[in-house]
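call fold(seq) -> tokens
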Amino acid sequence: MVLQMRPPVEDKIQSAQTEITTPETIPALPQTHAEAAELGMAKILRPTRLLDRGNWLLLIMSGAVLTTILVTGMFFSSLNGSVRPSTTGASSASSSDTMGSMGSPSTTTAPAVPHTTYNATLPAVPAGDIVNVKLTMKEQLVTIASGVTYHAWTFNGTVPGPIIHVRQGQMVHVTLVNEGSMAHSVDFHAAQTPWNVNYQSIAPGKSFSFSWRANFPGVFMYHCGTPTVIYHMANGMYGTIIVDPTNGWGSPAQEYALVQSEFYTASNSDGTYSVDPNKLMSGDPDYVVFNGYAGQYQDAPLAAKAGQKIRLFILNAGPTQFSAFHVIGAIFSDTYVDGNPANHMVGNQTVTVPPGGGVMIELTIPEAGVYPFVTHAFADASKGAVGELKVTP
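ret:
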């Protein structure tokens, strides 16, 4: 323990030592009665010398006392510091709770929220000219990795939100219901509609409806657009809407939708996790995942048959990292940037998907086996952006 006691205790000790060890600071004493008389001193020489020695002894004793005080103070300060936590239990508990909310290691077990593997299978396009979409906005606990229970903001209670599948030319009628505790909204990248009219924030307990026509095919994103947008997105308010070309994609295929995204976490005192603002704004995620959970398609691989065409609709919800999507042991026979048939490439090994962007890839795997898929930005793959295609004969 270091005690900041130099002023004034050590200064006094140093002063005393200087007076003792520096002869020139002691006044010269008269050696004869004449010198004494000249100096106006009426005292006899020997008593004067005895008195001077007494001053020396007094200074030495003072230094010893001050040194004793210093050592004693250090001892009791150390003793007081060692017992302080047991005498301020309430304050310590309060401080611990505060630090827990700021991201310190949790001291309790989070409530168990079982994880259900997100169904990546692409749903069928609804029949008819109008597709009704209902999105219920709510905040709830979800599991994003083994043992990690997160305070998410969701569409329909899942992260990502539901896969929406429509056909080019259909009218999409959207109904938003806000069951949360704060304002939320939705922004469809596939829509052409005025932002200030239809992407407005909906207050808690309110609902709102609007319609738009799916004029362009593609793999599009939808997300909450309420400020501050990055917080709503980082907390889970995103999903994919896939617009098929008017005449479809031709030959049948095994179709899956994958949404890559990031989580920036801070632990709470109750064992749960919330968003960490510093990590979020620095672009330093703890988890990068497909469909909301780290590595879930390693435990539950996506299935396909050898020789069967596989069609993957990939969205990068971000909010910050780029995806470099790659399937180990395979080549993409056809790639469509943003999922538009006009943006066609052939024979890609890895495709780049920016935050807020999408891609559709087709591949056919001739041999049975396990084929991992990753983002080839391997720092992110190591944080959970990895899954498997299991190809059977």
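The radius of gyration is 38 Å.
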